[in-house]
Amino acid sequence: MRTTVGIIGAGPAGLLLARLLHRAGIDSVVLEGRDRAYVEHRQRAGILEQGTVDVLCAAGAGERMDREGLRHDGIELRYDRKRHRVDFPALTGGRSVTVYAQTEVCKDLIALQLKEGGPLLFEAEALAVEGADTDAPSIRFRHEGREDILECEYVVGCDGFWGVARKAIPTELTRVFERTYPYAWLGILADVPPSHDELVYARHDRGFALLSMRSPSVSRLYLQVPEGTDADSWGDEEIWDELERRFETDDDWTLDRGPITQKSVTPMRSYVHEPMRHGRLFLAGDAAHIVPPTGAKGLNLAVGDVVTFARALSYQKDTGSAELLDRYSETCLRRIWQAERFSYDMTSLLHRAPGATPFEDRMQLARLERIAGSRAAETDLAEAYTGFPFD
After folding, report:
1. Pairing of strands 260-274, 289-290
2. pLDDT digits (tens, 9 = 90+) for 77-102
3. Mean pLDDT value of segment 177-201
4. How far apart are CA 374 and CA 244, in angstroms?
5. How distant, in Å, are the alpha carbons of 60, 216, 229, 245, 370 from that of 239?
6. Is 5 helix (H, G, I), strand (E, B) or coil?
7. Cα separation of 248 and 219, whole Å?
8. Hey, how many other C-beta atoms are within 10 angstroms of the C-beta on 44?
9. For 225, phi and psi rounded to 5 degrees?
10. Can you give the pLDDT at residue 229?
11. CB count, 10 Å around CB of 229?
12. Which residues pair with 265 in a beta bridge?
């Protein structure tokens, strides 16, 4: 097989990249190790920044999102039994975010790719990227019981943290920056309408809690728990009781309960791999960077990466200049480090570290009071949450 761009991974990054390249008249092949059902049902992020929404719409993938997605014009911060709403449009010149699950983004992009785009091979396991530093890189993969080679002009690794793409970059050329956190998120899906019409981020002495949603009838909620927690060690009523404690306020707000249909534990880490390019191999999404989920940045950063690559390759096609491709890693990393900073700030602001001192508790409360009382501080949060621009 031969193509211009070989894409490893059919998550939102790989699928969107294939869509952007198709609309630019550049052919590609997408290799995905899992089957279609798995890709369309794996639960991941659900908050789309304004820029991500705009890109999906411009790519022709926004029809169902416009119809079913939930536009949110703010979030609520809770601390010390107080409530403070951050108004995004008022602070950012009209920007907002949209609640639309990654599973739905993937379904939309898969349907478009199979209808209009190039080959999308499921259960095609990428084994290695070869010749990344040559003019003719290739992807060795296994599909339908036999090995094959996809010959490319460029390879983009959208295959996540455990994928093969990053392994093709010699370790002596790389730098890795990472931080692990001593806590995790216990997440649930529950068949109950959300108890608030926007996301609620709660700082509590017992730990962080987040009220989110997947639809008007399905709630998504999270509790800070110790690292290594087994989700099954928490009973359903125990989870609801703890959520109720952490969301407590001085007014008459109540948390509605319902049947819990799914439990999982998400570890917390920050990770950046530099550079994001080696020869004609380019990394995108979790293959190059991971953020703690507090800032809702993971999927949106991946979108920024593939938009940057698609624009750079289109520029080369139109002008013959590789200038933007040569700056791919530098361009992406500027945005990535700002998102890492914001995600770290939100995490340290709202989570109570094991052994936290009374001084550290008061510092968190002081930072939250600053956001609630300063338009400048509130604007900084709103601008970061709704998304940094795609360079």
Report:
1. antiparallel
2. 999 999 999 999 999 999 999 999 99
3. 97
4. 29
5. 40, 21, 13, 10, 31
6. strand
7. 18
8. 16
9. -135, 165
10. 97
11. 17
12. 186
User: Across the beta sheet with 277-278, what order do the strands follow?
Assistant: 120-121, 28-31, 5-8, 154-157, 281-283, 277-278
Contact 130, 117 (CB under 8 A): no
Question: In this structure, how many other beta carbons lie within 10 angstroms of the beta carbon of residue 240?
Answer: 19
pTM above 0.85, yes or no: yes
- pLDDT-derived band of residue 41, with 50, 70 and 90 as boundaries? confident
Report CA dihedral (52, 57, 61, 66) to the nearest 10 degrees: 90
Alpha-carbon torsion (236, 221, 62, 276), positive or negative: negative
Q: Return the active site residues.
A: 72, 201, 293, 297, 385
Query: What is the C-alpha to C-alpha distance for residues 343 and 296, in angstroms, rounded to an integer?
Result: 8
Residue with tokens 């996540």: 160
What's the one-letter identity of residue 265?
A: V
Overall residue count recorded for the chain in this entry: 391
Nearest partner of 29 among 165, 95, 124, 128, judged by Cα = 124
Any idea which residue has 């926004």 for tokens? 62
What the block records as the tokens of 62 is 């926004």
